[in-house]
Design brief:
about 40% helix; about 375 residues; disordered N terminus; alpha/beta; 8-stranded parallel β-sheet; 13 helices; two-stranded antiparallel ribbon
């Protein structure tokens, strides 16, 4: 485990109280505030040092910079070109980047360039590195068996070991995997599933999460509240859970195993008195995000939307704002990153309760970044 030192930058005016001889210059001054070792195992801890570090980073960010932590832009062959993403980095309008498909060497080069460009403004680099998608996302990588063919924890650990090694070498921090949808034959999920019943999926998914996070890469369990037994593909259109949520119970043991993030799918719920989404996807539902996942299931990690450019949600006006109001922490691939950022900022001006909710989301993201060993500077 690496020994990470948090470095914060504060203005000289904050230092005057410590020394009357300090200059009144407003230029930023680097000071070391913490020698504590943070890693992903620290995220759910009650560490006072970590809590203090989160609060200090949060206090040093402008309101715009805080909300920007929630926005993740896309890059790669299926995402936006580098020239479109670069201004978002320079203007501190995003908090992370998802790489969709491309050459591993190019990804590594891009991440190196981005890190140099964003010094002091750490970005979480992420991708869908599921075993079933791995070779398609990054051609030329070692051949990987589909997830559905990994039937033992030993096979899972071996596959995750290969994935982690490559992700680390390139510079990734966050893997949007594993898929824990309960289905052997769903149109959208296909061979990305770990099986057709909870009993077989839970031990395999637990092994995946632990092997990923023990190696300092964030795991994501998805697609909440369950995509395995619905008809249709959310990449193309809105799909529906009719009645009872038959897959949602699988999340509880994975949450208890320490999964750090959950991705919510663009799945509507109907004929359910408590959780019906009124024809809207779960990604925009306060009852699903906050009522079910946060309050009932006691999940304290990060909640992430599925890609906001997908057919099930892309045409809904103000979808990023609605997702934020529902309780999501990270808005993945909004078509208009700056527009999404501005819509949330505008809503915060008139809604104190929403303001507090955004503060909690941003602090979770900062906490995760500190546990990944990231440094905030020039704040």
């Amino acid at each position: 485990m690496q020994n990470f030192t948090l470095v914060l930058l504060i203005s000289a005016t904050a230092l005057i109280a410590c020394s009357q001889d300090q200059s009144t210059s407003q230029s930023a001054t680097a000071i070391e505030v913490n020698q504590e070792v943070f890693d992903l195992q620290s995220f759910y801890s009650s560490s006072e040092a970590l809590n203090q570090a989160v609060n200090e980073v949060y206090s040093g960010l402008s309101e715009r910079e805080r909300v920007a932590q929630m926005i993740v832009a896309s890059l790669g062959k299926l995402g936006k070109p580098y020239p479109a993403v670069e201004p978002l980095i320079v203007s501190r309008s995003i908090g992370g980047i998802i790489f969709l498909s491309g050459d591993p060497a190019q990804f590594k080069s891009d991440i190196k360039s981005i890190n140099e460009l964003s010094t002091g403004w750490p970005l979480i680099m992420s991708m869908d590195a599921e075993p079933s998608l791995f070779n398609r996302r990054m051609p030329g990588t070692p051949e990987m068996q589909p997830t559905s063919e990994l039937s033992t924890t030993s096979q899972i650990n071996d596959a995750v070991g290969v994935i982690n090694e490559i992700l680390h070498d390139i510079g990734f921090h966050h893997n949007y995997a594993p898929v824990i949808d309960v289905s052997p034959d769903n149109e959208a999920i296909g061979n990305r599933t770990m099986g057709g019943d909870s009993a077989s999926i839970v031990p395999l998914a637990t092994a995946f999460v632990k092997a990923t996070q023990n190696d300092q890469i964030v795991a994501t369990i998805k697609h909440f509240p369950g995509h395995g037994r619905v008809q249709g593909d959310t990449h193309k259109k809105l799909v529906f859970i009719d009645g009872e949520l038959t897959e949602v119970s699988i999340y509880k043991p994975l949450i208890e195993a320490g999964a750090l993030s959950v991705m919510v799918g663009h799945i509507a719920i109907e004929n359910n008195a408590k959780l019906a989404t009124e024809g809207m996807p779960s990604t925009l539902s306060h009852a699903v995000f906050t009522g079910l996942l946060r309050e009932e299931m006691k999940f304290e990690g990060l909640i992430i939307t599925d890609a906001m450019n997908m057919g099930a949600v892309a045409a809904i006006p103000n979808s990023s704002l609605l997702a934020a109001k529902a309780g999501c922490d990270i808005i993945l691939m909004p078509p208009d990153e700056v527009g999404s950022l501005e819509s949330i900022l505008n809503e915060m001006k008139t809604d104190p309760e929403f303001n507090h909710q955004i503060e909690e989301s941003v602090k979770r993201i900062i906490r995760l970044k500190l546990c990944l060993g990231m440094e905030f500077q020039n704040i």
